[in-house]
Every structure is written in structure tokens, then in C-alpha cells.
Specification:
Order of helices and strands of chain B: HEEEEHHHHHEHHEE
Largest interface: A-B, 23 and 24 residues
Order of helices and strands of chain A: HHEEEHHEHEHEEEEH
Largest sheet of chain B: 3 strands, antiparallel
Number of helices of chain B: 8
Helix content of chain B: 25-40%
Number of strands of chain A: 9
Mean pLDDT of chain A: 87
Radius of gyration of chain A: 17 Å
Radius of gyration of chain B: 21 Å
Helix content of chain A: 25-40%
Distance between the termini of chain A: 14 Å
Oligomer: heterodimer
Strand order of the largest sheet of chain A: 2-1-5-4-3-8-9
Strand content of chain A: 15-25%
Strand content of chain B: 5-15%
Number of helices of chain A: 7
């Protein structure tokens, strides 16, 4: 039924954007009801370190781990990225392939897709399912507001920012928030596994 | 010969005056959509984290006035998903655009023309500015611009300061006046940063907000900067800290800022 709806929306609108992602596009957003508190309402296009364009919406049906950081941050961010890896790595190996990671830089000036690619390689995280991304300034700020991440650029080019790892559920709602550095990840990983089990049962 | 020279001088002089007159006649018409360049500089914040150290601000463009109901209506006509009956609750509280008579019309005969749009959430304000090729001003940009006022005398300055205290303690959100009506402007022509509404800024809640408790001691310390702006600024910081990005009140509107490297074509150059 759902496929039929998407298909009919596709045929009616025949929007070229639909061809890019099998889940993306505003037509299917209307055809399928998105929950009021889903982050899918944010119509942002993210450019990845592979120079590809992704939307949150295209991860529908799968959990997404979201972390906000910046590349020039040498003290805190490596820990934050390692925390994200710990969460990802705590998910049972058989399910890990269905988990996406969106690492969003709030340093638009310095973190181009090329710089992010080097960052991903340096951190040995240029792996499937991981996306180091940048976007329009207003979209990055919107995402931060939706997640409850605060950041401010300081005079010295550094950013002061909150340390937060979030998990979006299969509908794009914030399901888990891990605040602070070096936090235990077991219960967050368990929630991700439960999401995936529930979703495959449906 | 001499008289001829005088005549040509006279002509040039008259022409210059006429052009100047023409420009001054035209500029109020243009004022509505204008944005002005705020040159780089520094200012003193009232936040405890930066005592003594001025905050540096790069140059940027800022809208001369707040965004009006008419402006916002036009934005909605092109962006359905931000209309009152379409907006998902993740982006705005229940009373979004509450002062508008109908779902999709402000009812200008009721609320008046050229009034700043209020009852808009941070998300809606951010989306509007993004659509215009800009963004919301950062908290520091906004506060820096607000402090760029010139006063003729100490008396003038004190009078302004007293007026501000009066205004912040009696904001009448139901009877907002038209943009540009306060007569308050900074030296670059940015109008109504005081005396009309409160305004959203990009990072309205500073990072240290979570660590600040809003007891009398803190509020007192915030005001210790001791210049004419510090009372008003402390009220703004404290009010902003009580917001969340979905907040929509009759007191809060916004204006947009633009990076200096924004495409020239989208900018009205100043005459």
C-alpha cells in the first residue's frame, strides 16, 4: 500500500528529484504522513565527504546516529567522534549495516567535503553508512536547534559547543540523547537494536 | 568670461542640489527593503564570560527594519509548509501567527500596515532569512549593531537610557507600532533595535546560559557594565534564555543578516 502511494505520487508529480533517492522528494513527504515531531520535516540537503547529497528523509526505516562537531577541533571532537564510534560499534554486528551515522560539521568555512573526506580517512571512518557532512548555514543551525545542540564561533576561530550524540528512530524522531563525553553507550545501543528488531517485524 | 564661469559653476551647483534632493526623496521609498553594511568592530558584552575583553565582530549586512507581516505573507505564499495550518509542531508552538485574522491573511485593516511580524518561531524566522539568501544575525552581531548609536550630549544619552527602562517594563505586544516609527536608529541607519519588539537571533541562547541561574545576583552582575545599553541588554539576554526555538509570542519578531560575500545581485546598494 505504501509503495502504491509513493508510486502514485511519483506518477502524478513526476518530479525529477524523485529519481535521485528512492525515498526522497517532497511529493512522497506529502503522500506519506510524517509524524509531527520527525526531523524529516527539515528539508535540508547534506553534502557528504564523498561529495554525494543526502537527506535525513532517505534514511527512513533505519536509525540514524547524529553528532555535531568540527574538523579543526583537536581537543574535544576526537573524543566525541570516538564516542559515536563506540555507540555504533556496540550495536550487534549483524544489525550494524542498517545503522547510519551523520556527523555534521558546523564549521562551514573550513570543513568542505574534501576536508571532511580527509578527516574521515584520518579517523579511519570512511566506511559504509558513515556520512561526514556539511550544508547551508541555516540548515546546520536548524538541525542544531532541533537536537538541542548549542554552538558559537569564537574570536579565535574555535567553536564552543555542546557535546551530544543523538539517535533518530525509524521515523526521524529523536529517540536517544547522550549528553557529555565518555558516556556509557550500552543502553543507547540496545535501543537501536530494539528499533531495528521492531522495524523488521512490521 | 568670468560671468560665464560663474554661470557654469552655478549650474553645476544647482544640478548637485537637485540630484541630492532627488536622492533624498527617493530613499524613504527604498528604505523598506534595504539592508545596510555594518562595518567590523568590537563591543563589550554584558555576559560574565567576557569581562573586560571586547568581542570582535566581522562586517555583515543587516536589514534596516524588522520583517513585516506583509513580507512574511509573501514568504508564505511561496512556502506552503510554513503556513499556519501546515506547519508541523516540531517547528512552532500552537499560537504561531496568532495575531493574524485568518490562517493565510494578516488582516491588515485590523493590525495596521508595516507592523513587524511577531508570533513567529525561531525556525520560521530562520527559514524566512534562509529563503532571502541570508540568515538570522548572531547574538553578537545584533548586540554590536544596537550599540552603534550616536548621541549629541550626555543629557540625550541619559534620556534615552531612561526611556529604554520604561519601554522594557511595559512592552505592549498587542499594539505594535509600524517599523521605522520609533525614531531610534544606529549610526548606519538600522532602525528600531530598541523600542519596538524583541528580535530572534541565530544563537539566542548563549552556551553559558545553562550555567547561569537567573537570580538577582546574576541579573545584578549582568548590569554591571554600567553603560546606557546594559540595562536593556540584560533584559534581552534574560528574556532570550527563557525561549525555546518553537516559542511564538507577540513580543518577538526578527530581521535578517547577510554575509558580506553574499551575491551582489541580491543586495540593494546604498546610495
Amino acid at each position: 500500500m505504501r509503495t502504491l502511494l509513493i508510486l502514485s505520487a511519483f506518477l502524478l508529480n513526476s518530479m525529477p528529484v524523485m529519481a535521485q533517492h528512492h525515498h526522497g522528494g517532497s511529493a512522497s513527504l506529502k503522500a506519506e504522513k510524517v509524524p509531527e515531531h520527525s526531523l524529516y520535516h527539515l528539508k535540508a540537503e547534506w553534502t557528504t565527504h564523498r561529495n554525494e547529497s543526502v537527506t535525513l528523509r532517505q534514511f527512513k526505516g533505519q536509525p540514524v546516529i547524529v553528532v555535531m562537531f568540527y574538523g579543526n577541533c583537536t581537543q574535544v571532537c576526537p573524543i566525541l567522534i570516538r564516542d559515536t564510534w563506540r555507540l555504533y560499534n556496540s550495536v550487534d554486528e549483524s544489525m550494524r549495516g542498517s545503522v547510519n551515522v551523520l556527523a555534521v560539521s558546523f564549521d562551514r568555512e573550513n570543513d568542505s567535503p574534501e576536508v571532511l573526506r580527509k578527516y574521515a580517512e584520518y579517523e579511519q571512518l570512511n566506511i559504509d553508512g558513515w556520512h561526514f557532512v556539511t550544508a547551508k548555514e541555516t540548515d546546520i543551525r536548524s538541525l542544531a536547534m532541533m537536537l538541542g545542540v548549542q554552538y558559537v564561533k569564537q574570536g579565535n576561530g574555535e567553536f564552543a559547543h555542546s557535546n551530544l550524540v543523538s539517535v533518530l528512530d525509524a521515523e526521524g524522531k529523536v529517540a536517544v540523547r547522550v549528553e557529555g563525553l565518555n558516556q556509557p553507550m550500552a543502553s543507547a545501543a540496545l535501543k537501536i537494536e530494539n528499533m531495528l528488531k521492531q522495524h523488521t517485524m512490521q | 568670461m568670468r560671468s560665464q564661469k560663474n554661470i557654469s559653476r552655478f549650474t553645476i551647483c544647482t544640478l548637485t542640489v537637485m540630484v541630492a534632493l532627488l536622492v533624498s526623496l527617493l530613499s524613504p521609498v527604498m528604505a523598506q527593503e534595504e539592508r545596510v553594511m555594518i562595518p567590523a568592530g568590537s563591543f563589550h558584552s554584558i555576559l560574565p564570560e567576557v569581562k573586560g575583553e571586547p568581542i570582535l565582530v566581522d562586517s555583515f549586512y543587516l536589514d534596516r527594519t524588522a520583517v513585516t507581516n506583509e513580507d512574511f505573507l509573501q514568504f508564505l505564499q511561496e512556502n506552503d509548509s510554513w503556513k499556519k495550518d501546515e506547519i508541523p509542531s516540531i517547528f512552532a508552538a500552537q499560537n504561531y501567527l496568532n495575531h493574524w485574522q485568518e490562517v493565510s491573511t494578516p488582516g491588515l485593516e485590523e493590525i495596521g500596515e508595516n507592523r513587524p511580524v511577531t508570533h513567529v518561531s525561531w525556525f520560521a524566522a530562520n527559514a524566512y532569512c534562509s529563503e532571502k539568501g541570508g540568515r538570522l544575525p548572531t547574538l553578537n552581531e545584533w548586540e554590536y549593531s544596537a550599540q552603534l548609536m550616536d548621541f549629541d550630549s550626555i543629557q540625550e544619552m541619559n534620556r534615552f537610557s531612561t526611556e529604554l527602562i520604561g519601554w522594557y517594563s511595559s512592552v505592549d505586544a498587542k499594539n505594535t507600532k509600524a517599523v521605522g516609527s520609533t525614531g531610534i536608529q544606529n549610526r548606519h541607519g538600522v532602525q528600531d533595535q530598541f523600542g519596538l519588539i524583541m528580535e530572534w537571533v541565530e544563537d539566542y541562547k548563549p552556551i553559558i546560559a545553562d550555567e547561569l541561574s537567573l537570580d538577582c545576583g546574576t541579573v545584578g552582575r549582568l548590569q554591571q557594565l554600567g553603560n546606557i545599553y546594559s540595562y536593556a541588554a540584560s533584559i534581552r539576554y534574560i528574556t532570550r534564555m527563557s525561549f525555546n526555538p518553537k516559542t511564538t509570542t507577540g513580543m518577538v519578531g526578527f530581521r535578517c543578516a547577510y554575509d558580506i560575500d553574499a551575491p551582489e545581485s541580491s543586495l540593494n546598494t546604498e546610495l
